[in-house]
Design brief:
The chain has 185 residues and is mainly alpha-helical. The protein is built from 6 helices and no strands.
């Protein structure tokens, strides 16, 4: 099981690197936007990552394992899931389709949740993943979360290059004021 997990993790990280740092980056630099292929690969990566948890959960896909009896773990997980879903929903609805697809280049999104994080949608989804890790804590579930961080890093670096090229100094000023992850104070 561990070997299958490690090989799968390596393949997923490699596929993510190729997608974000080669394919998406190329589309951004040559076409100035995501294409259907690059966007589809992005969606596929996050779908594969979400289903990667079946390499450590004690059930077969698409079943959900029994929720642990520990009420504290349940409450913590529910809080993380609710907050995570709210952040993702607000961030994505505020971003809009054009920006999500890398096609709206008229203005830089700096209001709403984007005043506190340059990547609130990734933060929100990460909170949902943390809820799963809390419920089914193991080294493999922690590894799953770390894989998400690596995938997100590839995505963020590629998007930052695109935004720097499109918005130049305006984006640099925004980056100086708003952190990549969370602005607390």
């Amino acid at each position: 099981m561990l070997l299958r997990y490690l090989v799968s993790a390596f393949i997923l990280i490699l596929f993510s690197f190729i997608t974000f740092r080669v394919i998406v980056r190329n589309d951004y630099s040559k076409k100035g936007r995501l294409t259907f292929v690059s966007y589809s690969f992005e969606v596929l990566i996050f779908a594969l990552h979400a289903n990667f948890m079946y390499l450590f959960l004690p059930v077969k896909w698409p079943n959900i394992p029994p929720i642990p009896e520990n009420i504290i773990l349940r409450i913590i997980s529910i809080i993380f899931i609710i907050i995570g879903f709210l952040i993702v929903a607000v961030a994505m609805s505020g971003l809009g389709y054009g920006r999500t697809m890398g096609q709206d280049k008229k203005s830089l999104k700096t209001n709403g949740l984007y005043k506190y994080s340059r990547n609130p949608q990734l933060i929100g989804y990460g909170m949902i993943l943390i809820a799963v890790v809390v419920l089914y804590l193991s080294w493999l579930s922690i590894g799953w979360l770390i894989i998400y961080v690596v995938i997100s890093y590839f995505m963020i670096k590629t998007e930052e290059e695109f935004l720097t090229n499109n918005y130049g100094e305006e984006y640099q000023i925004y980056c100086n004021d708003v952190p990549r992850l969370i602005k607390l104070f």
